[in-house]
Design brief:
The chain has 8 helices and 15 strands. With 344 residues, the protein is an alpha/beta fold. Helix 1 packs parallel to helix 6 and helix 3 packs parallel to helix 4. The longest helix has 20 residues. It is elongated, with a radius of gyration of 23 Å. The chain binds zinc ion (2 copies). One zinc ion binds next to loops.
């Protein structure tokens, strides 16, 4: 046997779709920092664990290739529309093949990788085939995959198609995400400690997930959830008319009604070409309320004929200037919120 220092590859597959916007994505970002910081204080983990980060929204990207902990820089995470779960799984398979050292006749390869998939479980791309090939009988030998479904509307059937280990985080709060990363850190440390003993057996037991934050997912999605195909949340992009920066308005569907209530607005780093086209069309008559601008607190929003939605002061200002196309709008009908783009 050659003297190859066997690594424990750890892949984080992080959903960065818009349902993660706001405190959730900030908590995930903080969680990755904490994880790396904690693992670095454990000599065994520091020696064996290598980490990679794959994010997915409209497309999947490996933003950090498999890297030793001492050189791992927690990446900035940006929220975008779309949930390309299929793309993330295909990318994961490809990276497992190219980055993980196989055991050969002369060399013992890397330990079996740990994969932690954090997602809202509502993919927007073709994911079934990618899931099936990840879960195919022979493929179970390539990695131990743990799927964590986030938020109230995870379709656990989607996640069980990828792996047998599915946990739910029903409340996507910063505290629940923090507990998840503490558990993740304990899991990686447990595996790196017991690794020689467990590597041959194949099966590993992670520490119990934190109660109150994570729970084992039911095998089937409830009929009520499956029956309603309307998106649970809808998002609209808007611009602040004062600072001209983009933000995201979040609306949540009522339990048994086809209407959506404004719940929050989150600042966005930047909008990219094509992002807005990915938003599902929504009839404005289904939307109720308007979240105030996260930059200037303006309470309502106006749609310019150019398609831009922008924050607007209360009362009835005689004219408004669109922050996107700079045209002057004369306000007439006193309508608060009019989403002409997506009507119909
Ligand atoms: Zn504003
Ligand atoms: Zn305009």
């Amino acid at each position: 046997m050659e003297n190859y220092s066997r690594r424990l590859p750890v892949y984080l597959l992080l959903d960065t779709s818009e349902s993660m916007a706001g405190p959730a994505i900030e908590a995930v970002q903080q969680g990755v920092r904490t994880l790396v910081g904690e693992l670095a204080t454990n000599p065994l983990a520091l020696e064996t664990a290598y980490m990679s980060v794959i994010t997915f929204s409209r497309e999947a990207k490996q933003i950090i290739p498999l890297t030793e902990l001492t050189r791992f820089q927690p990446p900035p995470l940006r929220v975008r529309p779309g949930t390309a779960l299929g793309g993330a799984l295909r990318l994961l398979s490809e990276r497992l093949r190219s980055e993980v050292m196989k055991t050969t006749e002369t060399t013992k390869g890397d330990y079996k990788p740990l994969v932690f998939l954090l997602t809202d479980g509502q993919p927007t791309d073709d994911w079934e085939q990618a899931a099936d090939s990840i879960k195919a009988p022979g493929a179970s030998k390539t990695a131990n995959i743990y799927a964590i479904g986030c938020g109230p509307d995870v379709d656990s059937e989607v996640l069980y198609r990828i792996t047998e280990t599915v946990l739910l985080m029903p409340n996507l709060t910063p505290e629940a995400i923090r507990k998840f990363f503490v558990w993740l850190s304990a899991s990686v440390q447990a595996v790196s400690t017991k690794i020689e003993a467990t590597a041959s057996a194949g099966a590993i037991n992670l520490p119990a997930p934190p109660s109150g934050a994570l729970e084992v997912a039911p095998r089937t999605t409830t009929a009520a959830r499956r029956g309603n195909k309307s998106p649970r949340q809808v998002f609209l992009h808007a611009l602040c008319s004062k600072v001209r920066k983009p933000y995201l308005m979040r609306f949540v569907r009522r339990e048994y009604e086809e209407r959506y209530d404004a719940v929050a607005a989150h600042k966005l780093e930047a909008l990219e070409e094509g992002d807005t086209e990915l938003l599902p069309p929504i009839n404005s008559s289904l939307l109720f309320g308007c979240p105030s601008c996260p930059y200037c607190e303006n309470p309502i929003a106006t749609m310019c004929p150019c398609g831009a939605l922008f924050c607007t002061p209360p009362g009835e200002p005689p004219t408004l200037v669109c922050p996107k196309c700079n045209s002057e709008l004369v306000m007439g009908d006193g309508k608060d919120f009019d989403i002409t783009r997506a009507d119909g």
